[in-house]
Write a structure and sequence with these properties.
CATH topology of the largest domain: D-Maltodextrin-Binding Protein, domain 2
Number of strands: 11
Oligomer: single chain
Structural class: alpha/beta
Distance between the termini: 32 Å
Low-confidence stretches: 1-22
Shape: globular
């Protein structure tokens, strides 16, 4: 029996008890930032739509629209806020121009791995803070998929020192882009589907995108042959569903719980599939002539020191960011008492 079938049975038993109620079916349109063929991430909104319809007995039907059908890939926030699009499957790192604090529910440089991250999100106050901030723009936020560790970037030429980063133009998302900007990189944000052409045309010289299988889906091994590790800027990340608040409030309690259960299933499945598929992608990279590099420790020390500078700047610039940081760092400090004693070293 698959995870999906188990969760269907368990979720159905729970959700139907509160969702089975008369009324007209509700139709929601949902934009996705990732094409269906994107490794691990792409199928998530489609499975979400199938499960929500099943769990609600057809009370809620979700139609998924690919990038560009309703709005450009990563330009969905305003559309959801205003209600011209009911919902979106995305990543908070694309929304930081609205509130820099959103980065905390996307990915944190030198941050935790999945167990600790979700412990803070679901049991340490992260969810409540995120929902408070998104609600200001008429949006309901909920985590809806896991992204395993990213790689540390793709480059056309090998790097011989941190100083060689200065002057490069590079696609970079999230807080890590602020670290590299301080090190002299000209960072740009663009959708994953735009990176291949941007490198090929010389618009950018380097890029970070995602984990190896997804980087492969985007064709990065074809246009850059030097892939660096570890992904210090994103050891773990979260995908999300955004729902227009008016649309969300119009759902029954059972329908809301169906979305929650389906998103939690997506987190589990993308975590498992993400971890299971990366080594095969790396083997294919190497077969295609990609050189895998490891950042020297002194480079990582430089990145970390620069990150701490970014932390102080961001705390001073945005009270919401400071609230997120205080919650996040306090939880990590307490979690360390457990983590340092409970687990064997990863290697």
């Amino acid at each position: 029996m698959t995870i999906f079938k188990k969760l269907t049975i368990l979720g159905g038993a729970t959700v139907f008890a509160v969702a089975a109620m008369p009324g007209m079916a509700q139709n929601l349109n949902l934009h996705t930032f990732a094409g269906r063929n994107s490794a691990v991430i792409g199928p998530v909104p489609h499975l979400l739509a199938e499960r929500v319809e099943t769990f609600t007995g057809g009370e809620v039907k979700i139609k998924v629209f690919d990038p560009g059908d309703l709005v450009p890939a990563i330009q969905y926030y305003d559309a959801v806020s205003q209600g011209s699009v009911d919902a979106a499957f995305g990543a908070a790192g694309f929304e930081v121009s609205k509130n820099s604090a959103y980065d905390f529910v996307s990915a944190i440089p030198f941050g935790p791995q999945a167990p600790e991250y979700y412990a803070w999100i679901f049991n340490g106050g992260g969810l409540e803070l995120a929902q408070e901030f998104y609600a200001r723009d008429n949006i309901y936020w909920y985590p809806c998929g896991n992204v395993v560790a990213e790689t540390g970037g793709w480059f056309k030429q090998p790097l011989n020192g941190v100083d060689e980063l200065a002057g490069l133009s590079m696609r970079f998302a999230g807080l890590g882009s602020k670290v590299f900007t301080k090190l002299g990189v000209s960072t740009q944000l663009m959708g994953g589907g735009e990176i291949y052409q941007a490198i090929e045309l010389g618009t950018i010289e380097a890029a970070e995108l995602s984990f190896p299988a997804n980087d492969r889906s985007a064709g990065l091994p074809e246009v850059a042959k030097h892939n660096y590790f570890p992904g210090w800027h994103q050891q773990q990340a979260i995908n999300e569903i955004l729902v227009n608040m008016t649309a969300w409030n119009g759902l029954s309690d059972g329908a809301k719980e169906a979305i929650h259960v389906s998103c939690k299933a997506a987190i589990l499945e993308t975590m498992a599939e993400g971890e299971a598929t990366q080594f095969a992608a790396l083997e294919q990279h190497v077969a295609d002539g990609v050189t895998l590099h490891t950042y020297p420790q002194d480079w990582l020390d430089t990145f970390h020191a620069t990150w701490l500078e970014v932390v102080e700047e961001e705390k001073a610039a945005n009270p919401d960011w400071a609230r997120m940081w205080d919650s996040f760092s306090a939880f990590r400090a307490r979690y360390k008492l457990w983590a340092d004693r409970a687990y064997l070293p990863r290697n």
